[in-house]
């Protein structure tokens, strides 16, 4: 049937969902980020204890020692829900795809000097495993965390890390002409080369760390906060100019991603720290312990990437910058 | 069979133990072939309630809106407890009639076949 | 290792090869921590995996392709949602009763999409195979998409109709929503292999067509372009998920013969759990869609008996048979929707959507689609309701129903061979009686009683006093338990549920559109 | 008896071209239209060929683009650069 309406008579009976209205101070128009996020996760009346963890409910705030009065106090400064996230990444991947196509056509990395190419294989390509580890840690937080505001951002981070692992893999393939031998060599290095063992050990330790927020902090603030500037800034700027330009083209996605995601990481840690002195204390303890261990683990990698002296000073600088960043978030460094 | 869990000893206390119902126990009540009432009912009742009081005071509030209800001849009603034929003593309590927490009590009313004979 | 650079032109990679290179090698066997500590949950169920690399990824999406295609889908979808809102396209639906299917969907299904998002995040962390983990992670983020796009689409309806305003809150509390909630929590609290068998295979592959195809086609047929759009957009992801389900099961069956009986047990359990859940869909198809696409019985024949039959014939070579009690579903297909609609017409005053009696021509459609059952068993019942309503005594049932301990649905199902007799089944656990609607549900309980004794059964919880707003004193004079329970549910009394004909939704519709719905023929009294 | 596989596609512009290509390439396929979608059953096997779709679309079409129009399917999937196929293994 055809319906004629008198639009002037039509007023909405409410502006948004009640579960949203309760959190934004009443019934008023809400953003898509808010409607996609607030109170999405189940909160009560759970039926069965998990067969794999009967000491907890299916969703349980006790999976971290961080205490929040309201887990929806976390806000993603990017306002990412699935749609906003995906369309942003689709745009970025379009750019990245063009760069890779260009690099493939011109065989940009295939014609590098042997020593440079070899260095990239040893320092950059094994990072695909680091990224995959970061994927696992963020998936852990997405799975076991409380509240959509926090966990959806972890999901996005996890998928980003898979994507970055695959971009690094593509760089590896560009280096070896798509045969995959460079990826295999990089995996051997990740598994056996002394330069990588500290990083891998720390990563594997995070795989068995149970506290959700500790994993989030250790991976996304501390580990990334050291690895990204060390490799993607200091190392990539240190290699020869021509290769450096080619590489910068292929790692634009990665460096843009890091800058963008750091905003979320910082906001998240700051919100937890601002909540209470106890949280601040706990975050500071975790921060200090992980930072010290990770810096130690990265020393041989810094040497491999930049040589003994430059490596040490780069790592020292990176550590100092991270401390300054953490201090701004309320962490005692 | 028992559940297969990560660690041995996965267990739980039943959520519906009798002591959680404030002195009552649950009784399920179903009127066979009267499917206007979509399902049997669940009511909390004291164990000491006489069976006769259940029939006189509880059942009318539960089933009374059905057009057949007023015509029930209670002396001809056929009862079942957990599917087994059951002869209640109207003077005795529910407990003394053998009805326990979560007993399923059903009754048939021969000759009354629901709305327009459709078992509704 | 060679130190010369590859100066020759790169060889071209096919999708299979490219995917394998970019995905497979990412994971590694940990040595600083034991693999069993890194992946503590993927062994206890008894499933034996010899070689995780035998896992076949049927859709080989790398993240860049994922972002590309999903980004395109999202752009299209949100363009339509924007247009829908700007044009007040909610008035394009053919009949305001239709909106009640959307209410049932948002409160009953959307929270499951979210639960699936989290469930696949668990699986996406807990399997030790890299390819399997990636497949689960992609499904996890897809399911988040579905939950969010559904809220965004239905957001506009929420501004003009009742019953949609507090979906996730209601899902945690309302009596009939404990059916989908407990179903999904059952799967999530199981081990990772059971979870994927339950959700990816038994639900997505075997049953989801019954939910989405009729729902989305129904939306199209009833003028709801917004729902069609999110539905079909989600379905394109769903095809990937269904495929994951089939691949998981084939992988398990091929890895070790010891897996076969375990998988069969899960297939039996989860077919039955899922089928019971679909009772809600049956009533939606036959009663709640004002313009009907096909009957529940026809849909069951097409998607389960025919397409499902083909699937199980294919799996027979592994030693997998049709799920236990499937024959009951075939016996029930001519009653299911009618019995379910009766439940909601008993308790419509305690539901977050409106109910009504079919109009005369709708009754005739039901007679035609269900010649063996409708006129004999259900028409007289529904005409009695109509008579009461026309006499100004709309009938509702004021006593709480007995629930099945497993599926949590009121015990309305009739004996497989006797549509006039409620089906009662019983077990005893440490001396306590446990009741079930069917052999299927009893079977599920008897296999894992420690789990199902924990069920948060809404009726029992109400009687325990756990379902009143905080601070309620049930001893004060005039205490009305039903009203307090509905407040606990966050229902707006007199608005969110009850008879459609006296609902604010109907009144608003008439006011906004100028239509006189009483001109439409009403249900005929006996 | 050979059991049917099926694929259901949205009735979009691209979707229609895919349906046409399927019907042309799979002589036993039967297409049935429903509101906003087409369901195609085919005994045993069904194939979507890149070339056939491109011919009808008049542009490049990547097999993975099928995701944009796909609604549902049944059968074991195989996906290559050239085609997308569904089949039940012969008993």
Q: Tell me the Rg of chain B in angstroms.
A: 17 Å
Mean pLDDT of chain B: 96
- The low-confidence parts of chain B are none
Q: If you compute it from the alpha carbons, what radius of gyration of chain D comes out, rounded to the nearest whole angstrom?
A: 12 Å
CATH superfamily grouping of chain D: Monooxygenase component MmoB/DmpM
The CATH class of chain D is identified as Alpha Beta
Number of strands of chain B: 5
Assembly form of the protein: heterotetramer
What is the secondary structure topology, with strand pairs?
The complex is a heterotetramer of chains A (333), B (120), C (526) and D (91).
Chain B: E1 25-31, E2 41-45, H1 51-63, E3 78-81, E4 84-86, E5 103-108
Parallel strand pairs in B: 1-5
Antiparallel strand pairs in B: 1-2, 3-4, 3-5
Chain C: H1 15-23, H2 35-38, H3 63-86, H4 99-108, H5 110-126, H6 130-158, H7 167-171, H8 178-188, H9 192-221, H10 225-255, H11 259-277, H12 279-288, H13 296-315, H14 326-332, H15 336-346, E1 354-355, H16 360-369, H17 374-390, E2 414-415, E3 418-422, E4 425-429, E5 432-436, H18 439-447, H19 449-452, H20 458-464, H21 481-488, E6 498-499, H22 504-513
Parallel strand pairs in C: 1-6
Antiparallel strand pairs in C: 2-3, 4-5
Helix pairs in contact in C: 3-6, 3-10, 5-6, 5-8, 5-9, 6-10, 9-10, 9-11, 9-13, 11-18, 12-15
Chain D: E1 4-10, H1 13-25, E2 30-34, E3 37-43, E4 45-49, H2 50-57, E5 70-74, E6 76-79, E7 83-87
Antiparallel strand pairs in D: 1-3, 1-5, 2-3, 4-7, 6-7
Helix pairs in contact in D: 1-2
Describe this entry's structure for a reader.
The complex is a heterotetramer of chains A (about 325), B (about 120), C (about 525) and D (about 90). Chain A has one domain (about 70-330): Ribonucleotide Reductase, subunit A, CATH 1.10.620.20. Chain A is about 70% helix and about 0% strand. Chain A is built from 13 helices and no strands. Chain A is globular. Chain A starts with 17 loop residues before the first helix and ends in a 5-residue tail after the last helix. Helix content of chain B is about 10%, strand content about 20%. Chain B has one helix and five strands; from the N terminus they run ββαβββ. Chain B has one helix at about 50-65, and strands at about 25-30, 40-45, 80, 85, 105-110. The radius of gyration of chain B is 17 Å and the shape is globular. The mean pLDDT of chain B is about 95. Chain C is mostly helical and about 525 residues long. In chain C, the strands form three sheets. Chain C has a two-stranded parallel sheet. A two-stranded antiparallel sheet of chain C has the order 2-3. Chain C has a two-stranded antiparallel ribbon with strand order 4-5. Chain C is globular. The N and C termini of chain C lie far apart (about 90 Å). By secondary structure, chain D is α+β, with helices and mostly antiparallel strands. Chain D has one domain (about 5-85): Phenol Hydroxylase P2 Protein (Alpha-Beta Complex), CATH 3.90.56. In chain D, the strands form two sheets. In chain D, strands 2-3-1-5 form a four-stranded antiparallel β-sheet, with helices on one face. In chain D, α1 (about 15-25) crosses α2. The radius of gyration of chain D is 12 Å and the shape is globular. The mean pLDDT of chain D is about 90. Chains in contact: A-B, A-C, B-C, C-D. At the A-C interface, α2, α3, α4, α5 and α6 of A face α1, α3, α5, α6 and α7 of C.
């Amino acid at each position: 049937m055809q319906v004629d309406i008198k639009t002037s008579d039509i007023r909405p009976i409410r502006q948004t969902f009640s579960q949203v209205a309760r959190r934004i101070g009443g019934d008023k128009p809400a953003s898509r980020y808010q409607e996609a996020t607030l109170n999405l996760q189940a909160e009560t009346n759970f039926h069965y204890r998990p067969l794999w963890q009967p000491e907890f409910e299916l969703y349980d705030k006790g999976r971290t020692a961080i205490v929040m009065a309201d887990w929806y106090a976390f806000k993603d400064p990017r306002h990412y829900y699935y749609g906003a996230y995906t369309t942003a990444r689709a745009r970025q991947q379009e750019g990245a795809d063009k760069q890779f196509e260009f690099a493939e056509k011109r065989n940009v990395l295939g014609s590098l000097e042997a020593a440079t190419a070899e260095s990239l294989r040893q320092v950059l390509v094994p990072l695909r495993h680091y990224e995959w580890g970061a994927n696992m840690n963020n998936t852990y937080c997405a799975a076991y965390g409380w509240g959509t505001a926090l966990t959806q951002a972890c999901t996005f981070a996890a998928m980003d890390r898979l994507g970055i692992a695959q971009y690094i893999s593509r760089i590896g393939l560009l280096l070896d002409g798509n045969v995959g031998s460079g990826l295999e060599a990089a995996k051997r290095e990740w598994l056996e080369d002394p330069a990588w063992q500290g990083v891998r050990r720390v990563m594997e330790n995070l795989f068995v760390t149970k506290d959700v927020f500790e994993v989030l902090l250790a991976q996304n603030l501390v580990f990334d906060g050291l690895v990204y500037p060390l490799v993607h800034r200091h190392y990539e700027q240190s290699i020869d100019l021509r290769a450096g330009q080619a590489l910068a083209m292929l790692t634009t996605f990665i460096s843009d991603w890091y800058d963008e995601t750091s905003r979320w990481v910082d906001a998240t840690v700051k919100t937890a720290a601002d909540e209470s002195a106890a949280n601040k204390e706990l975050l500071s303890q975790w921060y200090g312990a992980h930072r010290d261990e990770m810096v130690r683990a990265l020393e041989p990698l810094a040497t491999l990437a930049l040589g003994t002296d430059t490596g040490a000073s780069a790592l020292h600088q990176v550590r100092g910058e991270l401390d300054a960043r953490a201090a701004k978030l309320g962490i005692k460094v | 069979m028992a559940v297969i869990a990560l660690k041995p000893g996965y267990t739980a206390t039943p959520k519906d133990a009798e002591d959680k119902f404030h002195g009552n126990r649950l009784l399920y009540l179903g009127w066979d072939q009267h499917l206007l009432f979509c399902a049997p009912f669940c009511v909390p009742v004291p164990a000491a309630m006489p069976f006769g009081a259940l029939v006189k005071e509880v059942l009318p509030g539960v089933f009374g809106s059905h057009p057949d209800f007023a015509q029930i001849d209670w002396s001809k009603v056929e009862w079942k407890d957990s599917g087994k034929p059951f002869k209640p003593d109207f003077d005795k309590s529910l407990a003394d009639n053998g009805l326990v927490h979560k007993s399923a009590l059903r009754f048939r009313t021969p000759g009354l076949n629901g709305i327009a004979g459709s078992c509704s | 290792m060679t130190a010369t650079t590859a100066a020759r032109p790169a060889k071209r990679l096919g999708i299979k090869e490219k995917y394998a290179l970019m995905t497979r090698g990412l994971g590694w066997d940990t040595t600083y921590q034991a693999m069993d500590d890194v992946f503590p949950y993927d062994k206890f169920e008894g499933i034996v995996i010899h070689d995780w690399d035998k896992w076949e990824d049927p859709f080989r999406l790398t993240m860049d392709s994922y972002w590309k295609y999903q980004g395109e889908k999202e752009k299209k979808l949100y363009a339509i949602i924007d247009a829908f809102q700007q044009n007040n396209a909610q008035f394009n639906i053919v009949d305001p009763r239709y909106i009640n299917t959307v209410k049932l969907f948002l409160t009953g299904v959307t929270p499951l999409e979210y639960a699936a998002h989290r469930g696949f995040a668990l699986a996406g962390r807990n399997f030790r195979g890299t390819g399997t983990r990636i497949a689960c992670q992609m499904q996890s983020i897809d399911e988040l998409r579905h939950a969010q796009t559904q809220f965004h689409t239905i957001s506009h309806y929420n501004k003009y109709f009742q019953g949609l305003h507090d979906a996730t809150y209601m899902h945690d509390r309302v009596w009939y929503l404990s059916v989908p909630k407990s179903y999904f929590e059952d799967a999530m609290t199981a081990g990772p292999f059971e979870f994927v068998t339950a959700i990816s295979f038994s639900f997505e592959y075997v049953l989801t067509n019954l939910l989405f195809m009729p729902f989305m086609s129904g939306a199209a047929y009833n003028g709801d372009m917004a729902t069609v759009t999110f539905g079909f957009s989600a379905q394109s992801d769903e095809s990937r998920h269904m495929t994951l389900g089939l691949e998981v099961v084939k992988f398990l069956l091929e890895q070790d013969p010891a897996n076969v009986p375990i998988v069969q047990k899960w297939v039996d359990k989860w077919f039955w759990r899922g089928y019971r859940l679909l009772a809600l869909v049956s009533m939606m198809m036959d009663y709640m869609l004002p313009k009907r696409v096909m009957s529940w019985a026809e849909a069951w024949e097409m998607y389960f008996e025919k397409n499902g039959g083909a699937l199980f014939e294919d799996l027979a070579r592994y030693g997998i048979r049709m799920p236990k009690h499937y024959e009951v579903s075939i016996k029930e297909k001519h009653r299911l929707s009618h019995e379910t609609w009766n439940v909601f017409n008993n308790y419509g005053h305690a539901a977050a959507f409106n109910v009504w009696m079919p109009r005369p021509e709708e009754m005739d459609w039901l007679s035609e689609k269900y010649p063996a059952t409708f006129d004999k068993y259900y028409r007289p019942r529904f005409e009695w309701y109509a008579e009461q309503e026309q006499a100004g005594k709309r009938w509702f049932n004021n006593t709480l129903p007995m629930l099945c301990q497993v599926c949590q649905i009121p015990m309305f199902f009739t004996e497989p061979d006797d549509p006039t007799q409620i089906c009662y089944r019983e077990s005893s656990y440490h001396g306590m009686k446990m009741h079930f609607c069917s052999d299927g549900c009893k079977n599920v309980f008897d296999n894992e009683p420690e789990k199902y004794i924990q069920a948060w059964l809404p009726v029992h919880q109400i009687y325990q006093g756990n379902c009143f707003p905080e601070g309620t004193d049930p001893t004060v004079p005039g205490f009305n338990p039903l009203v307090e329970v509905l407040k606990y549910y966050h229902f707006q009394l007199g608005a969110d549920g009850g008879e459609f004909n006296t609902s604010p939704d109907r009144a608003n519709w008439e006011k906004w559109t100028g239509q006189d719905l009483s001109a439409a023929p009403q249900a005929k009294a006996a | 008896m050979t059991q049917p596989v099926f694929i259901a596609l949205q009735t979009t512009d691209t979707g229609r071209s895919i349906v046409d290509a399927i019907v042309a390439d799979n002589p036993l396929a039967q297409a049935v239209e429903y509101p906003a979608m087409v369901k195609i059953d085919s005994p045993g096997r069904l194939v979507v060929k890149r070339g056939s779709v491109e011919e009808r679309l008049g542009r490049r079409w990547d097999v993975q683009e099928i995701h944009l129009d796909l609604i549902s399917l049944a059968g074991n999937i195989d996906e290559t650069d050239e085609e997308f196929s569904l089949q039940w293994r012969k008993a």
